[in-house]
Amino acid sequence: MATPARPRRRADAERSIARIVSAAREVLGRDPGASIDEIVTAAGVGRMTLYGHFPNRAALVEAALADAIREGEEALSAVELGGDARAAMTRLLAATWSLVAESARLLEAAEELLPAARIRELHGKSAARVEDLIHRGQRQGVFRTDLPTDWLVNVVHYILNGAAEESRAGRLRPGDAPAVVIATIESVLAPPR
Questions:
Q1: Pfam families attached here (predicted)?
Q2: What DSSP character marks residue 100?
Q3: 20 to 30 A from 68, CA-CA: which of 32, 76, 102, 189?
Q4: How far does the chain reach from its first CA to its final CA, in angstroms?
Q5: Half-sphere exposure at residue 138, Cβ-oriented, CA atoms within 13 angstroms
Q6: Domains: count for the chain
Q7: Domain range spanning residue 134?
Q8: What is each CA distance from 179 to 136, 140, 173, 183, 187, in whole angstroms?
Q9: φ, ψ for residue 84 (rounded to 5)?
Q10: Contacts of 92 (CB under 8 A, 6+ apart)
Q11: What pLDDT score does 1 carry?
């Protein structure tokens, strides 16, 4: 009895998609302006295969960013966030920094093609984690309450991405970046005297 071809084709398609997304993350992580040809070469597939799964560059970049965020979420979910909110924020920022540094160029590619609202939506779990931690710190009296929480969450995001840009530009040494990020965000979140 012959095995139906349909499940095999689906498995092949899933492997092909995974190769393309992985190659896009790698190639765009080095050069946000990399061409589709560079991505298909890295993936070991043809242009028709890529376009069979992703109708345009924006769809591919979104899939690559979503994959990077999903992988980052797996890592961040292991960070211990209990206890003192300041100490938990420090642990979260230390773990987040390496993820931001790794995906900064991919994010740059996404910002060129995707609406800002879509990028915020993809980062929703991460933003919610920071927001929950800020709320807890406010209840503990260790984080400021005089500014809107949404603003504080966005400032954390801006500082992380700004540090990645400064590091990439050579104005902030990569080894110094985590401490600089943590000190800056701690000062932003500290209650005014």
A1: TetR_N
A2: H
A3: 189
A4: 78
A5: 15
A6: 1
A7: 5-189
A8: 23, 23, 11, 6, 12
A9: -60, 130
A10: 76, 79, 81, 129, 130, 133
A11: 54
Sorted by sequence, the CB contacts under 8 Å of residue 80 that are 6+ apart come out as 88, 91
Is 80 strand, coil or helix?
Answer: coil
The number of angstroms, rounded, from the C-alpha of 2 to the middle of its chain's C-alpha atoms is 44
Residue 34 gets which letter from DSSP? -
Tokens of 97: 């920094």
Which string of DSSP letters, residue by residue, matches 140-180? HTSS--SS-HHHHHHHHHHHHHHHHHHHHTTSS-TTTHHHH
At 134, list the tokens: 């800020």
pLDDT at 114: 95
Phi, psi of 115, rounded to the nearest 5 degrees: -65, 145
Global pTM reads 0.82
Residue-level pLDDT at 8? 64
Q: Which two tokens stand for residue 121?
A: 């939506």
> Splitting the chain (193 residues) into consecutive groups of 10 residues, what average pLDDT does each group show?
60 91 96 96 95 96 96 92 96 91 90 93 94 97 97 95 88 92 97 92
Question: In the block, which residue shows the tokens 């992985």?
Answer: 22
92 neighbors 73 (Cβ within 8 angstroms): no
Task: Pick the closest to residue 112 from 31, 3, 18, 181 (CA basis).
Answer: 31
Burial environment of residue 125 by CB neighbours within 10 A (0 to 12, 13 to 18, 19 or more)? middle
